[in-house]
Amino acid sequence: MTASDLSLPAVTPAASVDFAAIPSPAFVLDESRLRRNLALISQVQRESGAQIIVAFKGFSMWSAFPLLREYGITGATASSLNEALLAHEEMQGEVHVYAPAYSDEEFPRILELADHLVFNSFSQWQRFRPQVDAARAAGKTVHVGIRVNPEYAEVETDLYNPAGPFSRLGVTRREFRADLMDGVDGLHFHTLCEKDSDTLERTLEVLERNFGDVLRQVKWVNFGGGHLMTREGYDIVRLIRVVRAFREKWGVHVILEPGSAFGWQTGWLVSSVLDVVHNVKDAALLDISVSAHMPDVLEMPYRPRILGAGDPPEHDHREAVDAPPGHAYLIGGTTCLAGDVVGEYVFPAPLSVGDRVVFDDMIHYTMVKTTFFNGVKHPDIGILRLDGTYERVKTFGYQEFKAKLS
User: Fold this and answer.
1) Is 287 among the annotated ligand-binding positions?
2) I want to staple 292 with a disulfide (CB 3.0 to 4.6 A). Which of 114, 237, 347, 373 is the partner?
3) 52 inside domain
4) Among 268, 385, 277, 371, which Cα is nearest to 331's?
5) Which one, of 177, 163, 174, 161, lies nearest residue 119 by Cα?
6) 39 lies in a domain?
7) pTM
8) For residue 166, how far is the Cα from the chain centroid?
9) Where is the Orn/DAP/Arg decarboxylase 2 C-terminal domain positioned along the sequence (predicted)?
10) Domain range spanning residue 285?
11) Tens of pLDDT, residues 296-327
12) CA separation for the pair 327, 363 (Å, rounded)
């Protein structure tokens, strides 16, 4: 069974959406698509026995949190004090916190908020243990974990590989301090990045080989994120089987904290053409910025899909009669950064000022990374509701831009 085999809610066809009626620019979450993902995630949670929480680093659109709670998602993982506050105030469930390092200034407040608190190193655990012990003595329930590095990963992009050579994330076996495990009741690892369940299964084999003696001592294990269970073709049956087997073998509570899986294919970035210029090639300038509004295009890097547009075929300046159909444009943003360009796309008709250009799959790991670079207009945030109405949830202006400066 895969995601495509499940009986999931129907989604609104993109072709039926009147993008011209949506104020540009805007990140638009499609409620029907989010519900489809949530239905699948909820089923995995029920059948696997794992607890699934949302990773704010990938999806933290808090206006959608009521929908997550509706499907039994009652917790979130935070990577900072600000995310922990958001989890406490808006998610209204368990707050799980992991950060590579905690500061003396912020840790007391993080400790107040956290239900699960994961340390990246034993030195951090030793540093902050007196505060944890004092909080527990005062009646605070907080589950403490150590992040481990299995030293195994199948991530192709170094920027996103938590278990790459000399990684600063997690404790390797040779650096592990079994003598400091008193007060620790869980382990955390994160080595996946938009991977299928076969990668998880191979990773668990390495984890068990390297940390089997530790697994016998703990009550819970957090498998981190990167479980792209909502992607078409993902092996859901294997995921459920692997999680169940691990739980039964080690007698532990299992936590999954995906980010992309929640927002995967749930919406668009709607933009408009501001100008078309020509310098050997035609270029369309949009009212968005690649570097400021979808930086993963440059960091990952990857090529986003544009609705209604295609890829230019590779050809070597053949005769005009052999030229590909359509109209090719370099698509770029409006910042002064020379490389603020997505790439070249072919459109069925010439682009004109005011035309909408809609980027697909722009909700997960996109809104969370936007900036106000160059002061360019920041896209709105909106929700396309089930009845077809568009709700403008947030608009940004000068005050938001100014608030980031001093």
Assistant:
1) no
2) 373
3) yes
4) 277
5) 177
6) yes
7) 0.93
8) 24
9) 179-362
10) 267-362
11) 888 888 899 999 999 987 643 434 344 457 89
12) 28
